[in-house]
Amino acid sequence: MATTTATTADAPAHEHAHHPPHLQHHFVSSEQQFDSAKLGMWLFLITEILLFSGMFVAYTVYRVWHPETFTAASAFLDWRLGGLNTLVLLFSSYTVALSIHYAQKDRLDRTFWMLVITLACAGVFMIVKAFEYGGKFAEGVFPGEAFDPVGHYAPLADIPYARQFFSIYFVMTGIHGFHVLVGMGIFLWLLFRVRRGDFNSEYYTHIELAGLYWHLVDIIWIFLFPLLYLIGHGGGGH
Amino acid sequence: MSATAKATAAPAAHQGASYNYLNHDKSVWSWLSTVDHKRIGVMYAFTLAIVFLVAGVLAILVRTELYAPGETIMGPDAYNQTFTLHGIMMVFLFLVPSIPAILGNFVLPIQLGAKDVAFPRLNLASYYIYLIGGVLVVSAIIFGQVDTGWTFYTPYSSDGGSAVIFMTLAIFIAGFSSILTGINFIVTIHKMRAPGMTWNRLPLFVWGLYATSIVQVLATPVIGITMLLLLLERVLGIGIFDPALGGDPILFQHFFWFYSHPAVYIMILPAFGIISELIATFSRQRIYGYKAIALSSVAIAMLGFLVWGHHMFVSGQSAVSAVIFSLITYLIGIPSGIKVFNWVATMYKGSIWLQTPMLYALTFLFLFTIGGLTGIMVGVLAVDVHLHDTYYVVGHFHYVMMGGTVMALLGGLHYWWPKMTGKMYNETAGKIAVALIFIGFNLTFFSQLILGSQGMPRRYYDYIPAYTGLHQVSTIGSYILAAGLFLVLFYLLWSMFKGARAPANPWGAATLEWTHCTSPPDPHNFHHTPLVTRGAYDFHLADEVFGAQSGDGAGDGAHAPARLAGDGRVAEPQ
Ligand code: HEM
Ligand SMILES: [Cu+2]
After folding, report:
1. Is the ipTM of this complex over 0.85?
2. DSSP code of B169?
3. Residue B566: pLDDT band with limits 50, 70, 90
4. Which residue of A has its CA nearest to B541?
């Protein structure tokens, strides 16, 4: 605390001569800026995991309390649609990783197309989800009070607490779906910025962060899928 | 204050102060859109002062109602809503953000030797997110009928008045503000330290904020999802907390306390940080057990996640979990005790200078010790069966929250006031206010500890005549406390317009914001990035503070005022 540095760090605040344009003035180097952004993103992802953990705890408690309800009600979810969505999301994780890879190699045209594919996958996921939700709503399977199953779902009326299982299903997949929608917004914005030429191999922070976010959305689905869709189709042979 | 005026005349001390973060651009828009951490800290200070004022008036209303049995100034429904609003505003809108948002924002980057926090725009966003949360609370007040207490236990909250929706939404949103601040601070501490600012040289306020931020990041999402589930429970009836539908109201309590116990550490850990700064600076002594203080904060942050069940000893959790929670609760007393002993050891044989900030630090030591000991008492299973939901618990948490956090906040505010405003407050008025606050506080809350041990239940509108005497002591105490706080408000505002100009380092402190910064600081904090060569409390190496002729911190206003220089022993002002 006694002296000041003689390195570039102590250049007067307004002297930006050697600063690349993307470097914000309160950072000393691009590296510091990139590392900060990445650490911040990781911390944000931790908060996301904890947000979902509350729901996973509720799921666990009630599954332990009413195991028969969970297996019986789960059999009414279509594992083929859930499985399809799992494959779609896994593939999109691969393409988003490639988009970062190409950005590092300065192949921004390929980055662009990889992001397009990722965005399309997210769209497919949401469309499949919309079909699933729509089919349930059409036959009275709603979250909460409106729950009044008919038709294909009519047997649910005789399963105690089936309403609670579907409430949990809708809340968990709903909040996950909301994250997918947010991801789509981010990818659209990134596409625009890639086209505008904002990024290069020295500066692709936003693509990297979006990729991290997208992997998390993917991982959460990887847990949701078996816990919700597959427990009813196990050894019992429904 | 003539000594202060003389010190200001020292060449290095006022150089640059005429161009500073407050006056380089005075337009309103430049404030509302600022990304400068110092200005954001000041905006939080104003906003939180208003919240504290409103919530404090509500408290005075509660105390006035309790002055006598039966109806005194309001009916039972109004009473329930008043204490609920008081609790919600104080906890979620005031105490949780308080120290990090005001003083953390202002001081943290400067103490690290950085130009700003890592994400300045996010910092501004978190302010506005907080404001949205605040507006929702106000709308809940307008729509009326929130009488759940600050704990929102189901089924009160899932079946009661409809404005609960606004409240839960408000807390959900305010939580984001808290999370963003936490993320910002952690990254700032990891990535933005000046050259030479190693982890072992960090000021202890930074360590306190670091531990706090960890808790904010790990705990706040849980209250977020809890509030969201409560909202869905109300709007859709999803049945997660409703036994008729297979749910469980106790799960709500688990979720709530999984956040809200760590949240009490969100409130107290930054306070610990401030107290370390104050005691070291005003004892002119290297802090005793630096590492123990720094790491005990982190230990408290971690242990704090494992004790939430001590709020539910009588809620129907299993006996085994109650015993385990009780044992871990005792453990928390250890790191808290370590800190208190370290502070006392720091003062031992120091040159103690009893300025207002130090008086707050001593008040804190006294009150927090009572708060911590009463905490251990309610952590004892058998004792808690009697004391739970009585005024004893109310007394306990006011000793830690008001006696701990608010005293530290006031101490810190006085300590950094010269830096923030460039003005000195009136020391005599400051000392009178401390005395009023100390006396008022103990009258208000010690009587509540006695009331509680005699069986007075909390949150009751009415009571048997036998409790009248102690309730009256408590109410009168609260008026004295309020008088002290209004005095603070008054002389601090007065000092902004009429106060003497503050020198760069009025306290002879040795951290960067005092040694390398003008009062008030430059918009970029430093003229040159500092190179750190010693620890934050190495006064014996701090030539630029006490060796009046030698170092002058490269012209950045490092001198201690003349009256502090020399043998390092301090003369009384005037
Ligand atoms: C030595 C450390 C502490 C211990 C052992 C401790 C222990 C406890 C226990 C066992 C209770 C539950 C009492 C009951 O409801 O029957 C409690 C309540 C409470 N404590 Fe502490 N505490 C400590 C420090 C703190 C601190 C530092 C704060 C805040 C800054 C705090 C804030 C609260 C609050 C707000 C409540 C009451 C919540 C409510 O029911 O409304 N405590 N404490
Ligand atoms: Cu607790």
Report:
1. yes
2. H
3. very low
4. A2
